[in-house]
Amino acid sequence: MDAPRDFIREIIVEDLRSGRFDRVHTRFPPEPNAYLHIGHAQAILLNYGIAQEFGGKFNLRFDDTNPEKESAAYVEAIKRDVRWLGADWEDREFYASDYFEQLYRWAEDLIRKGKAYVCDLSPEELSRQRGQLIRDGDRVITPPGMESPYRNRSVEENLDLFRRMRAGEFPEGSRTLRAKIDMAHPNINMRDPVLYRIVYAHHHRTGDAWCIYPTYDWAHGQSDSIERITHSICTLEFENHRPLYDWFLDQLGVHHPRQIEFARLNLTYTVTSKRLLLRLVEEGHVRGWDDPRMPTIAGIRRRGYTPEAIADFARRIGVSKAESIREIELLEHCVREDLNRRAPRRMAVLEPLRVVLTNYPEGKVEWFDAVNNPEDPAAGTRKVPFSRVLYIEREDYMDAPPPGFFRLAPGREVRLRYAYFIRCERAVRDEGGNLLELHCTYDPATRGGNAPDGRKVKATLHWVSAAHAVEGEVRLYDRLFKVPDPLDVPKGEDWITNVNPNSLVVLTGCKLEPSLGNVQPGERFQFERKGYFCVDPDTKPGAPVFNRTVTLRDPWAKAQIKARGAGMRYESPNSDRNA
Ligand code: ATP
Ligand code: MG
């Protein structure tokens, strides 16, 4: 087992050694009220990975106790995403709503034990009476709360009222069922927390069978127990709920999993909270949940990330007890490493400039062998057509090149990848001075890309034959937010102002080599010198659409090498060496 040794795995090893558990069973418990994001991916891979490593089981459980915000569509989206990540729950797909009857019976048990009561306080009064934390410098004070006037109802009265709550005799929000614990407890979660509230909402699975719904606290631990989970792994915000998790299970005397908390994943230049992502979708800041700029699993997938790259990222960041923001550059580094190994290379000109080879015969076509993947000899080669009129990248030409610019300029010679050296003779302009095309000459002696006389060029350009080009659309993405920590705004200001208004650039009329004319959504390529690209589902026959997954430049790898102080020049296998 070459699993990383983090504190969670240490606890599990110790539980197996001590005999607290003789097996490992984890779960991923999403609430179906939004799409999953990269933080959830970490939680999924953690829970699934642990089950695999310890020869245990993994459940997918929908924590569907909030009917107003949940839907079957979200359930389907979540299943698609978990499956895509490779976390296989086999036939262990569960729903908290399937346990509503059992949860209800347990609530009656608590009432009978004198440990729960029906309370008529309004939600506002109830929360006021529970009190709140007061911060005094570094000290946190929690003055005791107030006991509800309904706290000492008899068991009979409580049972009667609770049954009538279920029967729909009372208006929404008029009553709750609360645990009877301790209104002076330093942990506010232990101050007579709510188990049930009255909500007249249609549930996507139970329909109108219920008008009382369990709270997260009441449903979660008991669902874990029913499924015989051993380790209930969740994020740090539930640390304060653990005493309650334990209290309920102890009162009921049922199977008692161990809750373990870890710090949520935060990423720079994005947000990882469903509530905030929902706002981005609803207000139209993005094109939907699966917009390739979104940190949702669906967005990341559409952008061209691989599940392997996400798993690599999750493994590298590990788990911790300390909140932190991880750099998005690391995630991008992981996808570059993965795609570098597997993505076939292609030539695509995103912003075309016409080049006419004045000494190349009209109508002649040569087919050159192009390497599909230098990292993978088994990927072989393909044929690329070459002819008198070509496209190169507009940015690969300058009238007056500054020092350090080695690409095309008047009189300058460069290499066209796999083909010939060409020399720029003259730039052709319209009356307005706009650049129309370049007239160049090629040197037949440099066929294949090398000069027999040993003369060198300092740049190699990608190109596409005009007569053979396929036209396509390419979507380039920048960071979704302008700043690394979008939620860090002055008091009173809205974080939404940090949205980057220029995060999407759509290029149409891009010129693609002919092998890109017949591609399927989800296929990934490296466009030489331009980055990694993935075919978008908007693709129509003969009209491919590509998303740029990531560019080739890798600032993260560069920074690593710098940090190590190695006196070597950074050269990524991907980097564009033709400045
Ligand atoms: P919100 O994003 O609104 O805070 P949530 O992400 O907690 O909601 P859930 O559906 O309850 O929504 O999450 C399912 C599981 O994923 C939980 O166990 C939660 O702890 C875990 N999880 C959620 N966000 C992250 C994150 N950023 N990093 C790691 N795990 C997370
Ligand atoms: Mg949650």
How many strand units? Answer: 29
Q: Note the overall shape.
A: elongated
Give the name of the CATH superfamily of one domain: HUPs
**How would a crystallographer describe the biggest sheet?**
7 strands, mixed
Q: Which strand-content bin applies to the residues?
A: 15-25%
Question: Low-confidence spans: pLDDT under 50, at least 5 residues?
Answer: 568-579
**What is the CATH level 1 assignment of one domain?**
Alpha Beta
Major sheet strand order: 14-27-28-29-25-26-15
How many helices? The count is 13
**Helix share bin:** 25-40%
Bound molecules: adenosine-5'-triphosphate, magnesium ion
How would you portray this structure in words?
Among the domains are: 7-262, HUPs (Rossmann fold, 3-Layer(aba) Sandwich); 348-462, Ribosomal Protein L25, Chain P, CATH 2.40.240.10. Helix 7 packs across helix 8 (242-252) and helix 11 crosses helix 12 (328-342). The chain has 13 helices and 29 strands. The chain has a seven-stranded mixed beta sheet. Mean pLDDT is 95; it is low at 568-579. With 579 residues, the chain is of the alpha/beta class. Helix content is 26%, strand content 23%. The structure holds adenosine-5'-triphosphate and magnesium ion. Adenosine-5'-triphosphate (ATP) binds next to helix 2, strand 10 and helix 9.
